[in-house]
Fold each of these.
Amino acid sequence: HRHLLGIEPLRPEEITTILDLAEKYVDLNRQPVKRSKVLKGLTQINMFFEASTRTQASFEIAGKRLGADVMNMAMQASSIKKGETLIDTALTLNAMHPDLIVMRHPNSGAVNLLAEKVNAAVLNAGDGKHEHPTQALLDALTIRRKKGRLHRLTIAICGDIAHSRVARSNLILLGKMENRVRLIGPPTLMPAKIEEFGVEVYDDMRAGLEGADVVMMLRLQKERMDGGFIPSEREYYHRFGLDAEKLSYAKDDAIVMHPGPMNRGVEIDGVIADDINRSVIQEQVEMGVAVRMAAMDLLARNLRELAGPKEVMV
Ligand code: CP
């Protein structure tokens, strides 16, 4: 693959290859000196058109640890503000010969459009309600390390499924790896025809969590509810917020995940989020850096193959 635009085009063995390489970067990241040269001489541009803490910071750290020259575009201060289109922005940056472009954008499909216009390898850092592939990969790595496998697990994804690119990328990945995926949430926040993805749908937390190995909580994505029904937080927490009582329906050794940012007291009780025996939220963040290093390393190998063996001496 030239780009990482989504989980959809990846084969199960390609997912395993990325996770296996990410394991090596987990080890590197735990060393006192965290340095590799696999992206030395390459230029990485990060373009975030939506707010981000984890994804932006980890892509920047990942690129720097691999030796790339990393530039974070301040999109609020860019000429997009003066009416320049995404395509013209992409063509402008393309003329500066970047090798890797990481983009987050509020519109589904915007990252695919960018990939058609530039020579760089493009990595999707989240596009609208479509995909967030590196999130699904870091979640998969976390699950594989905690559960010892990434197949034949029962995984409950809970909350606002309809507006969640994290849920979409995860259910595609977990389905490809032959897990049983359950989606739990109010019918108003469930996408139409989602059963076609081979998932089970529940509107009751206790029934959906029964016997689950993994419980993945999602935030209410109010920024994508554009005028539609927004549930009251109090009512939502009562019915769908993860607390100790609802979690007791899952397996005794079930892990609790959240991609962040989380809203304590809305989709999850803060006590559960902080319970180091159940919550793996901080491990997810750690795996995020390693998975992004692995993804950029693999794409850079492809770039080198496309460019041929010659290095240009200046
Ligand atoms: N999980 C995630 O994408 O978090 P950020 O929005 O902070 O990057």
Note: Strands lie at 43-48, 69-73, 100-105, 121-127, 154-158, 180-184, 200-202, 214-217, 255-257.
Amino acid sequence: MQKIKNIAIIAHVDHGKTTLVDALLRQSGTFNSHEEVKERVMDSNDLERERGITIFSKNASIKYNGYKINIIDTPGHADFGGEVQRILKMVDSVLLLVDAFEGVMPQTKYVLKQALEHGLNPIVVINKIDRPNSDPEEIVNLVFDLFVELGANDVQLEFPVVYTSAKNGYAKKSLKDESDTMKPLFEAILEYVADPSGDIEEDLQMQIMNTEYDEYVGKLGTGRIYNGKISKNEEIVVIKRNGEEKKAKIGRIYTYDGLKRIEVDTAVAGDIVTIAGIDHIDIGETISDKDNVRQLPLIEIDEPTLSMT
Ligand code: GDP
């Protein structure tokens, strides 16, 4: 069985999310970084056309010690409330990335509040510890105060902290540690992020959390497989939000390798995948085994009008 960890990153713009993901990619079993992908995509429009799908994406999948770590980007703004809620439903933890010099910003606060309300236990990553005059320990105290202010529970308040210089490619569990790799952050992810729930032996259930349109392959639906496995060309039933059942056939299935979208023949419970081939697919719908039709609990899809405090 595939070992999977699903996390989202919460970060204020410029606190180093791209640099951090690149550092993790470079030190993992995955090849490409943002820079390399960008270069390759620039001279590979033909390749993209041939594969029939846009290669760029905001998500990444990183291999480490036999695990596949899916990293989902979160928009850090209240305008994306509904999308944030859905992303948080798909993951089992979040990395709260905070600049060691600038500290917590309003935009990160909003998404953190949602994550805590979802019952997720964040891992706090204090980045840019190489910055002169930065005060990582003081920032941790401020993050703690923020958790208290946002109503974190006792378990959430005991958040693990990892200190990083994404730019220089190292992470530390304690500021006194000597480290020249990202290993401590990888280890924290494997240790603290809960394994995805769900049973691979059960019949297929997947929930669509986001849709997009691709000019080559049409409507795409992304979501998490909660039970069973999904296969290319498989006949399934789509359960609409109103309970209506529609027979359909899965076309292609995409997952990630580094920052690249790749096509796979099958995927299993716990994984987050994108499927093509169903033109009427929509957010909140369940993809179910055709002989054992079971709907997943409905998700909130209204964009909430929340004000930032
Ligand atoms: P994002 O907007 O969160 O994706 O941030 P980026 O990864 O693009 O980083 C924003 C800026 O911060 C860039 O100029 C990076 O080089 C810089 N940066 C990222 N990580 C570090 C770090 O660990 N130390 C220092 N000094 N700068 C960093």
Note: Residues 100 and 138 are 9 Å apart (CA to CA).
